[in-house]
Amino acid sequence: MSASDARAMTECSIQLPVRTDLVGLEPYGAPQLQVPVAINVNENPYPVPAPVIEAITTAVREVAGNLNRYPDRDFPELRLALSDYLERESGVRVAPEWIWAANGSNEVMHHLFSAFGGPGHPALSSSPTYSMYPEYARNTLTELLDVPRREDFSVDVVALKQAVDHAHPALLVLASPNNPTGTHLSSADVAEILNFTRTSGPQGSATLVVIDEAYGEFRRDGVPSALELLAAHPHLVVSRTMSKAFAMAGLRLGYLAAHPQIISQLMLVRLPYHLSALTQAAALAALSRADLLQAQVAKMRHTRDRMVQTLRGMGLTVAESDTNFVFFGKFGNRQKVWQDLLDRGVLIRVVGPDGWLRASVGTEEETEAFLSALKEALQ
Ligand SMILES: *Cc1c(COP(=O)(O)O)cnc(C)c1O
């Protein structure tokens, strides 16, 4: 490539018709650094077990010969498998017609914002929470309002009701268990929220209550899933993903459970054939071996509880965690703690309110390395 070709690739000699609200923005992305212990993005640290690799490879081989055809648009087989999985995981039977899936729960959420948000249909959330919600809102021209959480990261239900009554949002999006705090919403709070949102949306419609359960599988014993409230509340949506518990962030498969009329609306805005035949086949294969992946989850929950205890034993403040990460602090200079850990080969995440840091559950060895690096750093 000549020098002038190279320049032409980075400089643009014409002015692009960039959307005014996107001018100067940077694309999302956690820093990706090569370090011995990377526990910064809440991945499952264990590689995919051999029998799961085997099942996926076989399934992909079987569909490869038919890739000349478009995939099944409505993926009934996958919806049935997800419905069976949810029943095994949470004890709640959700019919396959109540399931929708897309490329990661990010895309599932984007479908919800595209179908129900937009001008005059605001969304409401409660910070600190998942950093992608503002991006779904921005992309779909949806105004996103916020009711900050309390000091202990619980949701302020009274303030939420006031905001809902005032703004009439089409969507109320709450992550539970929440990222980056790790905390869950109590069933009593979810039930109360569902009661005051039946007619609080635009023009007397309901406000859709979207509970993002990306970390649902990591909840502690006795912490219920919002799936239990689905049958009685047709304006409830529960989203899940294979990215975290299933060790399949690379697969891009997220899904939700909701009333079939909500799903009909999502089908209007999805791109045609959005879920590739390869994704469908690989997801089905992984679900057929969910037992193996759930064994990893049990191990990670155990490691998580040990991390929480150890950090508390060190005198740190640690939020209750129902996820595969811990949120801890409070540090006068969290950036320095983060850097001190990085200098010892451990990458965690600076995220959320000032003073706090987030570290994902690693393997036993990674977790040990993190804890001893932190002890050194804090001496
Ligand atoms: C990680 C995460 C997701 C997962 O998104 P995918 O697109 O399924 O990978 C969704 N919601 C929250 C709150 C998360 O932290």
From TrEMBL:
Q: Which InterPro entries match?
A: Aminotrans_II_pyridoxalP_BS, Aminotransferase_I/II_large, HisP_aminotrans, PyrdxlP-dep_Trfase, PyrdxlP-dep_Trfase_major, PyrdxlP-dep_Trfase_small
Residue numbers carrying N6-(pyridoxal phosphate)lysine: 244
> Which principal EC class is assigned to this enzyme?
transferase
Biological pathway:
Amino-acid biosynthesis; L-histidine biosynthesis; L-histidine from 5-phospho-alpha-D-ribose 1-diphosphate: step 7/9
Q: How does it assemble?
A: Homodimer.
**What molecular function terms (GO) are annotated for this protein?**
histidinol-phosphate transaminase activity; pyridoxal phosphate binding
CDD domains xrefs: AAT_like
Q: Which residues cross the membrane?
A: none
List the gene name.
hisC
Segments forming domain Aminotransferase class I/classII large: 40-374
Catalytic activity entry: L-histidinol phosphate + 2-oxoglutarate = 3-(imidazol-4-yl)-2-oxopropyl phosphate + L-glutamate
Cofactors demanded by this protein: pyridoxal 5'-phosphate
Give the record's family classification. Answer: Belongs to the class-II pyridoxal-phosphate-dependent aminotransferase family. Histidinol-phosphate aminotransferase subfamily.
Keyword annotations for this protein, in alphabetical order, are: Amino-acid biosynthesis, Aminotransferase, Histidine biosynthesis, Pyridoxal phosphate, Transferase
Q: What is this protein called?
A: Histidinol-phosphate aminotransferase
Q: Name one GO biological process term.
A: L-histidine biosynthetic process
Name the SUPFAM superfamilies on file: PLP-dependent transferases (SSF53383)
Task: Give one Pfam family.
Answer: Aminotran_1_2
* NCBIfam families documented for this protein: hisC, PRK03317.1
What does the record give as EC number? 2.6.1.9
